[in-house]
Fold this protein.
Amino acid sequence: MAGQGIQRREILRILGTAAAIAQFPGFSKWTFACGHVGNAVLQIKPAVYNPQFFTVAEYALVERLSEMIIPSDATPGAREAGVAEFIDFIVFSDPDSQYAFRTGLTWMNAHSERLFGQRFVDLTPEQQTSLLEPLAYKDKSRPGEADGRIFFRQIREFALNGFYTSEIGFKELDCPSLKMYAESPECPHKDDPEHLHVSHPIS
Amino acid sequence: MAQQIYDVIVIGTGAGGGMAIKTLCEADLKVCALNAGRRLDPEKDFRFHRMPWEMKFRGLDDPKHRGESYGYMDGEYTKAAWEHEIPFTTAPGTKWMWPRCFSVGGKTNFWGRSSARFGDIDFHAASLDGYDVDWPITHDEISPYYTRVEKMIGVASTVQNRPSNPDGSYLPPFHFRCLDRILEAGSNKVGVPYLPDRCAQLTQPHEGHPACHFCGECTTGCDVGAFFSTPYFLLPKAEATKNLELRTNALAKNILTDENGHARGVAYIDRKSKQEVEVYGRAVVVAASCVESARILLNSKSRQHPNGVANSSGQLGRNLCDHLYGESARGYLPQLVGRPPFPDHVGDSTIAWMPRWQNLKDPHEEKFIRGYSVYPDGGCGDFPWIANELDGFGSSYKREIKRRYPSPVSFGIQAPSLRSDTNYVDLDPEVKDPYGIPVARLHFQWDENVLKMWEHSKQVCADVLRASGGVLESSGGEPEIPGFSLHETGTCRMGNDPKHFVTNRFGQTHDVPNLYVCDASVFLNCTDKTTTISILTFSLRTSEYLIENFRRGEHKAA
């Protein structure tokens, strides 16, 4: 492993000395990114995940909420990125967050029972969405749901952290820090400094 | 057994110490360098090419240890390199963040790389606006040293002819990104400068060092040495002379003095054996960084130096200055919403700057004296922070995050505090570190002048953002707490009058002729520019002055 690291450094050194070998938009950074440490380990998932902090029922709720926050649609989402496992690991590692998660998940189920007579995970997707919307949008918020809004914000933040620090999350954004560059990248719109006329390819 | 006596003992291996070590060794002086921490192993300690998912806590740090972190660089990627054992205290009412890297090379391993020269507008600020005193130096005198340092380390920038910023000799600059072009146009409308920063990141191979590969992770360490750091640029040259002995885990405790009050060496704690060790030299260079240097000198009490060595003026530890940092404005550029991701992150915040534009024609044209600079930044980074600002969840939310990901911009202020009698460092009378040495106690408040700059910057940056077609989201926050910038200066200020200054204009202490200071503690204030390149430059000048004193027989060589 140490040998690989030296080789990687040598490659970078050679690239840096003979500039312009690699052409913008660059080459894959993770080719050199000690991939042997992380990728192999983190991508092997046991068939059934045993949560370290949450109960099985709590974990099912965390999983469902994560998948609703960052769904699998045209691109992979929280499920493929293992976001629920990440949240379990972080909450397990962070005693300061445990009370908020335990009471927050309890609130979600109590609220769900109150509105629909069932636990959150047993609701239809439409019912689940209608429960979350007032928590997630300021202009749809309802009185008496402040605790839920605070908890939703917290679990959403943890889900974002889990998703966008995963390889899948980086690919979702096509994150440019996946690459290295032979030259400092330059704005290609020289005739339009204010960028008033550039087209918007992603809608 | 005869004790070995070195020519020079150098405390610290950061920018100041590293430059002193290299310069002295190359002049054939025998140098013993003391470094409080260990040598870093780039293989293990620089994790900059690891992606977050390869880190246990995704680079977000173990939540249990977040409270121990001293600052923004001190995270999961580099935690092992930062100091956590030696504490410090703050006086009631003082807030101070003090990230310290005791590893060999100090903070040069992770520094921000912005490298502007100080100019006469800084050196002679007191003559212009009547506050405090001038530096005992002119830009003409120091300019040749800056030029040599710029050639040594490689600084990417352009000649800009700005009255507050003397130009130097530069490598090709970073290219402007889309967000720079947009903000540049907005700045022009408002009438403030928007220019390539002066960035010590190698845009082409330089002096045997490879060019940058623009991975954008500089502040977690560069294991090919494509930006200046002491371990890659200076220590190998010193070691090649065979004149250097580098002692690691050697925590300097106090300067040893003889019956004449002259320095004869340094007492340090060997952190491995926990024993106190003495090392002897004909001259001593203190370069432990501003606050730490003051602590060592204040802890050096003797019959001849009852208040700490080189403190007959009573100014040792006084006049602490720092840069106020903060986000003056934040928002996004609709022109970039939905654009393909662009590598905006390749220079951290040092691609562009808005160098001081205030009080240039008339030192009193603003409601504050002196001036500040601004570092704009934004675009695509390692994490879409914008997501936390948006309402929602689900596919529309996920899509909106991707659309907004290239668009955020922010403006960071760098504003100098003014010298004040109430901002200083002394020794805590009660608290000692694990080795029984009194710790540094910080006394510091932002002054009215720097807070006026902060308010001013919020207004101007908001104007620039709006003039750029941007949407302003926030421009009213609090600044960072003192210490955040890592740019503290002024505890051993230089000046001609021994009654008022700790060192003379060459960094030699007035009281002890064979004791020199080679870090930012000799600076009279922190100006609107960053400190590292000036630490290197003043250290080079002091080191050559020290060598000249050896040649003249003032400190007898081995």
